[in-house]
Write a structure and sequence with these properties.
Elements (H helix, E strand, L loop, with lengths): L5 E6 L20 E2 L3 E2 L2 H9 L4 E6 L4 H10 L9 E6 L13 H12 L6 E6 L2 E3 L3 H10 L4 E8 L1 H4 L3 E5 L5 E6 L3 H5 L12 H6 L2 E11 H11 L6 H12 L2 E5 L4 E3 L3 H10 L27 E3 L2 E3 L2 E2 L4 E3 L2 E3 L2 E2 L4 E2 L4 E7 L8 H9 L6 E2 L4 E7 L4 E2 L4 E2 L8 E3 L2 E4 L2 E4 L4 E2 L6
Parallel strand pairs: 1-4, 1-6, 4-5, 8-12, 14-17, 15-18, 16-19, 17-20, 18-21, 19-21, 21-23, 22-24, 23-25, 23-28, 24-29
Antiparallel strand pairs: 2-3, 6-11, 7-13, 8-11, 9-10, 9-11, 26-27, 27-28
Length: 429
Amino acid sequence: MAMDDVIAVILGGGVGQRLYPLTKERAKPAVPLGGKYRLIDIPVSNCINSDIHRIFILTQYNSASLNRHISRTYRFSRFTNGFVEVLAAEMTAERPDWFQGTADAVRQSFHHFGDYRSETILVLSGDHLYRMDYRKFIARHLETGADVTVAVTAAREEDASGFGLLKIDDSGRIVEFSEKPTGEALQNMRVDTSRLGLPPDQAARRPFLASMGIYVFGRKLLFELLNEDMPSAVDFGKEILPAVIEKLNVQAYLFDDYWEDIGTIGSFYRANMEMTLPLPQFNFFDAEAPMYTRPRYLPGSKLLDCRIQSSIITEGCIINGATVTDSIIGVRSRIEHGSRLEGVLMMGADFYQTLDEMQKEKDKGHPRIGVGSNCTIRHAIIDKNARIGEGVKVLNEAERWNHDGEGYFIRDQIVIIPKNGRIADGTVI
């Protein structure tokens, strides 16, 4: 099957409350990742690497930065029919409401898909970290003659209750669905995952099939499900999937590789920190399936008398006499002498300050963008354009789990300095 017969629809997510304050001023898919990327770059890059070049992104909250990133990043040749287009929720006479859920977002946007010839619609999530060749996924859908195919990952018992779980028969057809079961209901969802090709030892360790929230539908069937059979259903996972299992051929496709649902500050922080490992599970250093993002044409980073260990330093940084360990330093970051960063995700800056601007900030007693001198920062996220003064200590020694402070937040024990935040000289957090 030619991939030009496929339309990809990426669900941008809701308010993103669990990622607050990173989502205070931006849509969830626009949250920076790995120092220079955004979350949305992951599914879009997977599509491009799978020869799928017609991509819609559905969103409704704080979509300005997402629109800006997409328009500056993904420009296909004028000689192809490829595009990446953001569709924000629209108020119309027929539909005066916001998107009510994942299925409702696709339903309300369906009329935009009609301008393009396609028999297959690939529904993706905008907040997962993984690398998948969707061609294999769609091939499985066609080979089995499925009405719907669901991507699944094999899960261990200690993780399984956090997902929607599926049971399959010997042919790989899904016969049962249970949303985040516990106790006896969880045990009832055990499956021989070797049926989908998992080696016996792995199947024994991971006897549950978790839905990844990624689906392949025939276009005509999806339209009928959303507009005729279940016109009031708003969610794919909780409503559409359980209903279609009973009456249609719904197949499972096993994805046996790294996959992380970036749902909370804790999972987001861990996924980023794992990138600093010598052999990370998710590796941006893959020439065959690269992850794309906006080209910025920044100079190489300048490191003056620094000690850097197990860290990622992106372009355009100036680091002067600092110690950086197990950290990611985003584009255009400035770190001054004597500062120590350990386990820090520093997202960088959107622009450089001129020497005059920095002098004016100093005259007013305000810190400039970046990390000032003699700071100690551990286990923290520093969002874009944050200003941290001199002698600041960000340690969370009280081990607070969730807390809102003056100019900072703590979520999952991780201190977050929000976008454009300002921390005065000598502050201790």
